[in-house]
Write a structure and sequence with these properties.
Elements lengths: L1 H4 L4 H19 L3 H5 L11 H16 L1 H10 L7 H15 L5 H13 L8 H16 L11 H10 L2 H11 L5 E5 L6 H6 L2 E2 L5 E4 L16 E3 L2 H8 L9 E5 L5 H8 L3 E6 L2 H14 L4 E4 L11 E6 L24 H16 L2 E11 L8 H10 L3 E4 L12 E4 L3 E4 L13 E8 L5
Parallel strand pairs: 5-6, 5-8, 6-7, 8-9
Antiparallel strand pairs: 1-3, 1-4, 2-3, 9-13, 10-13, 11-12, 12-13
Length: 440
C-alpha cells in the first residue's frame, strides 16, 4: 500500500480514496460520510477539486451498483473477491457514466490493481472487463440506472405502485443537484438572471452545473444556504405565521429549517445532540447572522422553561428518500434499523407534545419513503391523542402537482418525481398537528 500512497498523481489519489470508501461500504458496513472522516483514508488531504471528483466517482458507482453487478456476474470466470468487484464498479462507472478515455482507464486501474495484495493477481481479469466495457456495453450505448436493493424494493412496491417505484428509480438515476434557499431580504431575481439554473418558486434556485459555493455570489453576505427543495417544504408551506412566535426546532442540525424559521421572524430555540453537526450549523449561522438559542443536548434530557407555539420535529429516520444523493444508505441495511427508529420517533413525538401551548402546532417531518415513519406513525399518534388534529398546508399551485399528495388523516407525502420537469427532488413526508385548546 505504501508504494501506492507515495505516488504523487492527483488521479491516483482520487481513485485510491474512492476505492476504499466503496470497499468500506460493502466490506465493513461503514457509510461514505464516516469513511471520509477516517484518518487512514486521508480524504481530508485531497484538494477541494479532488474531493469533488472523488465524491462524484463514489456517488455514481454506488448509484449504479445494482445495475452494474449483474453485467459483471454474467461474464465472470470463477469467484470475484469483493475487492476486485469494488474496483470493477469504479472502472465501469468511469467507462459508462463518466466517459473517461480507454487508455486512461486501462492505465490507472491496472497500476492500481497491482499495488494491493488483494487485487494484484487480478489485473488480467480487470483488463478483460475494461475491454468488454468499451467494446460491448459502451459501444451499444448502455445506460446505467439506479435500482433499489431487493428487500427495499419489495417493501416499496407493497406501499406504492410498481409504476411509482420505477418513476422514483428514474429520478434517482439522474445527476445530483444543488439547491439554494434564498433568504427574504435578498434580491432573488439576480440569481435567476446571472447563474445557470432553474427553480419552481421564488425562494429556491437549482444549479444546472457544478459550482464553487464559497465563490458564488451571496455566500459571504449570507443571502442563501444550501437546502433541498423537499426539505424546505414543511416550513415553507406551513399555514402558520412564525413571526414573534416561540418555536422549538428539535434535531435541528444541519440547520436548513432553523434558518427558514429565523428568516420568518421566529423566536427560535434549536437543539441537537450532535456537537459535530452543530459546529457546522454554527459556521452557517455566523455567515447568515441569525439570532437564535442553539443548544447541544439530547431531546430526552431537555427540559424547556416555557411552552412553545410551534415545535418542528425532524427525528432520525432511514433517510430512504435521499437515496438519489446518498446511494450508500441502501447497502447499510436501513430496514434492519427501522424498528428502533420508529420507537425513537414515537417517543420524541410523545415528549414534544407535552411542550406545546394550546392551539400550537407540531410540524413533523422525515426524509423517508417508508410509510411506517410517516403516514402510519402520525396515524398512530392521532388515534392516541384526540386533542390533536391534522391541518392542511397553504393553498397554492403545489396542491395540484404530480407527486404532491395530501392524504386524509395521514399528512403530506412528497414523491421524488414532484417537480420532475426540473429533475425531481428527494422523497419526503410531513404533517401539521394542531393541539386544540381546553374546552374546544
Amino acid at each position: 500500500m505504501e508504494k501506492y500512497l507515495n505516488k504523487k498523481s492527483s488521479q491516483d489519489k482520487i481513485l485510491r480514496t474512492a476505492y476504499f470508501i466503496i470497499l468500506n461500504v460493502f466490506k465493513k458496513n461503514i457509510s461514505t460520510r464516516k469513511s471520509k472522516a477516517l484518518k487512514a483514508l486521508k480524504y481530508s488531504t485531497l484538494s477541494g477539486s479532488d474531493k469533488a471528483k472523488c465524491n462524484d466517482l463514489v456517488q455514481k458507482a454506488l448509484r449504479f451498483t445494482l445495475f452494474l453487478d449483474p453485467l459483471i456476474n454474467e461474464r465472470k470466470k470463477g469467484r470475484i473477491r469483493v475487492e476486485l468487484l469494488c474496483l470493477l464498479r469504479l472502472a465501469l462507472t468511469d467507462i459508462l457514466v463518466r466517459g473517461v478515455k480507454q487508455e486512461t482507464v486501462l492505465k490507472k486501474y491496472s497500476e492500481f490493481a497491482v499495488s494491493f495484495e488483494r487485487t494484484k493477481h487480478s489485473r488480467d481479469q480487470l483488463r478483460y472487463y475494461i475491454h468488454l466495457g468499451f467494446s460491448d456495453w459502451k459501444k451499444n450505448a448502455l445506460q446505467p440506472l439506479f435500482l433499489f436493493e431487493k428487500k427495499l424494493l419489495e417493501v416499496l412496491v407493497g406501499q406504492y405502485t410498481l409504476e411509482s417505484v420505477k418513476r422514483i428509480e428514474k429520478i434517482f438515476s439522474k445527476p445530483s443537484y444543488v439547491d439554494l434557499y434564498i433568504r427574504n431580504r435578498a434580491k432573488r431575481g439576480k440569481y435567476f438572471e446571472q447563474f445557470k439554473g432553474t427553480s419552481s418558486n421564488p425562494s429556491h434556485f437549482r444549479f444546472s452545473q457544478n459550482v464553487s459555493l464559497m465563490k458564488t455570489k451571496g455566500y459571504s453576505s449570507g443571502e442563501w444556504w444550501v437546502q433541498s427543495l423537499s426539505a424546505s417544504l414543511p416550513v415553507k408551506l406551513a399555514p402558520i405565521d412564525f413571526n414573534e412566535k416561540y418555536v422549538l426546532d428539535v434535531c435541528c442540525a444541519p440547520g436548513g429549517k432553523s434558518f427558514q424559521l429565523a428568516d420568518q421572524g421566529a423566536i427560535l430555540t434549536a437543539i441537537d445532540k450532535s456537537k459535530k453537526r452543530l459546529n457546522l450549523m454554527k459556521e452557517n449561522l455566523d455567515r447568515l447572522k441569525y439570532d437564535l438559542d442553539l443548544i447541544c443536548m439530547d431531546v430526552f434530557e431537555y427540559k424547556p422553561k416555557k411552552m412553545f407555539d410551534i415545535i418542528l420535529l425532524d427525528p432520525p429516520c432511514t433517510a430512504t428518500g435521499t437515496l438519489g444523493k446518498n446511494p450508500d444508505l441502501q447497502f447499510l441495511n436501513p430496514l434492519e434499523k427501522l424498528e428502533d427508529l420508529l420507537d425513537t420517533q414515537k417517543n420524541m413525538l410523545e415528549r414534544c407534545s407535552g411542550w406545546l401551548a394550546d392551539n400550537g402546532v407540531i410540524i413533523y417531518s422525515v426524509c423517508s419513503l417508508q410509510k411506517e415513519e410517516g403516514e402510519y406513525q402520525i396515524n398512530r399518534f392521532l388515534k392516541k391523542h384526540h386533542r390533536f388534529s391534522l391541518v392542511n398546508p397553504k393553498e397554492g399551485c403545489h396542491l395540484y402537482k404530480d407527486g404532491f399528495e395530501i392524504q386524509k388523516d395521514r399528512g403530506i407525502r412528497i414523491m421524488p418525481f414532484f417537480e420532475e420537469s426540473i429533475g425531481g427532488t428527494e422523497g419526503f413526508y410531513f404533517a401539521y398537528l394542531q393541539l386544540k385548546g381546553h374546552g374546544k
